[in-house]
């Protein structure tokens, strides 16, 4: 006496799944030739990631995708260190900035101004929920993560001007111990 199948199984894409006579799932395993990878990259000015500089003339730190993959943006984290990180009319441990730290992105050939930060409070307000961390140490350290979800950065060569994320330092930040920016994303 043969048993009728209880259910016909289908894969997520709708193709039927094969079941052997002893009711085992028959699997045809396929491995993608190039899996998606995690991207964690500092924005650079030349070879330097250090943003605690005199940027009065406008110093650009940038990242662009390489030639192999589009990149799905996740977050841009600004990391600031100083003896004491203040809020109020301060940017980390120095006076509030006159011109600001300009944060821009170009994704799918569209340019976005994400922020122009002049005060620590503005960093706090711009962050993802739970994306602001302040550590009391020697020196104090702050991580402010701004969301890049929904932005897909096309691989280099797609457009005449490559997609990018950039931070332009437009004031003198030499009074800080350290500042840098780290981009996180996924290859797609």
Helix fraction, binned, reads under 10%
What is the count of β-strands?
14
Biggest β-sheet description: 6 strands, antiparallel
Number of helices: 1
Which consecutive residue ranges, at least 5 long each, have pLDDT under 50? none
First-last Cα distance: 51 Å
Helices and strands, in N-to-C order? EEEEEEEEEHEEEEE
Reported CATH architecture: Sandwich
Shape: elongated
Structure, described:
With 188 residues, the chain is mainly beta. The chain is built from 1 helix and 14 strands. Strand 6 and strand 7 form a beta hairpin. It is elongated, with a radius of gyration of 23 Å. The mean pLDDT is 89.
Summarize it.
This protein has 188 residues and is mainly β.
Please outline the helices and strands.
Layout: E1 18-19, E2 25-26, E3 38-42, E4 59-63, E5 71-82, E6 90-91, E7 94-95, E8 101-107, E9 110-117, H1 120-126, E10 132-135, E11 140-147, E12 152-153, E13 164-169, E14 178-187
Antiparallel strand pairs: 1-2, 3-14, 4-13, 5-11, 5-12, 5-14, 6-7, 8-9, 8-13, 10-11
